[in-house]
Amino acid sequence: MFEALELGRRVKHKKFESAETELRHRLLQAQFELAERPYPAIVIISGVEGAGKGTVVHRFNKWMDARLIDTHAFWDSSDEENNRPFYWRFWRAMPAKGRIGVFFGSWYTKPIVDAALGEIDDQRLDQELQRITQMERLLTDDGTLIVKLWLHISKRAQQKQLAHDIKTKRQNLRIPDAQAAFARLYDSFAGVSERAILKTDTRHAPWHLIEAEDPNYRDLAAGEVLLRALHEHLRRVPANEPAKQPMSFIEAEQPTILDNVPTNAKLSSDRYKRALRKYQERLQDLAWKARKQKVSCVAVFEGWDAAGKGSAIRRITEAIDPRLYRLVQFAAPTDEERAQHYLWRFWRQLAPAGRATLFDRSWYGRVLVERVEGFARHDEWHRAYAEINHFESQLAAHGLVVMKFWIHISKDEQLARFKLRQQTPHKQHKITEEDWRNREKWGDYELAVHDMVTHTSTSQAPWTLVAGNDKHYARVQILKTYCKRLEEVLDRPSNQDGEVNPNKATDA
């Protein structure tokens, strides 16, 4: 593959100056047109060490309006990044709609380096490349333009460049010591890089290979690739709004998975108090144990309006030291959040290793309220099942414990709770006109919940359907499940490395 990029292509300086002026003008026009569009562009700069990736990044910032460009260099990872799932650092850097994100280094860097150094085998590399393909598809399906540039120089040219860098190292302190080590593994990196390119060269995010030995040719070629990609994306005719899905004559009145939930299950007051104390004490110990073993937890709470999500969450937070959890509550997205992919606002909230993140409402809004209320097109919410499964698989792959609770109550129970809220002064703020409107679409939401559970309840991120008519029963069911899921992970031999919180007075 790479031999075809060793042809000795060059551009003379006068021709470069002439072409640069026109290219710069056209790139600016395309950039300003992109600024008016409801999607961003991501430019990934990758390639051989010494091929001039940093110079190309500088060119792009010089040729275009830097105020509309977000440049990120993904080099050494910080402790903050290492304590979270791998893609967290990239989601934080995602450009907003209308902007260009230039990624100097990307999600390709670590798997390629690890494979070239022999730290992962081909099977593991292919798994990582598959995750990358899924990640890029998730972004492009949402409208993001991804331009991937691979800059190549021959082994001889790299050695010549490295010798020059070493000779002038005192004047060029930017040259990392690792570059010399990587150069000695040129053939290994070439083989791994070829494999990575072939497996991730897709229709929605293709690779563009550029011969980079001559700086003039390299920079013009990179600029022209970006310009063509912007023009093609900008000129693409937007897909027409899909026709409204007709009502299904089969689904109506058919049983759903919610019909299997024993909503009338009850727990006496005495049994509730004993169980509450038992599981809260157990959870207190488990939270400290998870902290010591650096096991993070993500818990999602969804359910009908007035189902008791808030009170159930409080029974969990009462048992966990405030330093060990973070509660995040979501309503309608802000303007800043609407300018990003819908998963962006959830990625950025993940707590570091050893802590829990509790989500009161979550990314499942895309397949629930946005589906039922028409805020998302059919193609958007339908593909969200795969996007959500991909997201949660990344969390699980990093070692996070993912648990999801749907609190189910009957329609009659919801009506009784609505009326009680109206009659209770300190609860009146909890009932709104929107709650009553949502109630009128109960059947639509039932089908949406059924599809949600069917498509996204996986072995690594299962749904727990909570019987919620009796709040005591629901709280204990959630606490018990929460403890069980943590114990399944913390009891693994690989995690048996410490004691629980020594300040705990009682034994669970």
Q: Can you walk me through this structure?
A:
The chain is an alpha/beta fold. It has two domains: 2-235, Rossmann fold (3-Layer(aba) Sandwich); 258-493, P-loop containing nucleotide triphosphate hydrolases (Rossmann fold, 3-Layer(aba) Sandwich), CATH 3.40.50. It has helices at 13-34, 53-63, 79-82, 88-92, 109-116, 122-141, 155-167, 177-183, 186-200, 215-235, 269-293, 309-317, 335-338, 344-347, 369-372, 378-397, 411-423, 433-440, 442-456, 471-490, and strands spanning 41-47, 69-73, 100-104, 145-152, 207-211, 297-303, 325-329, 356-360, 401-408, 463-467. The protein has a five-stranded parallel β-sheet with strand order 2-3-1-4-5, with helices on both faces. The protein is elongated and about 85 Å long. The model is unreliable at 239-244 and 496-508 (pLDDT under 50).
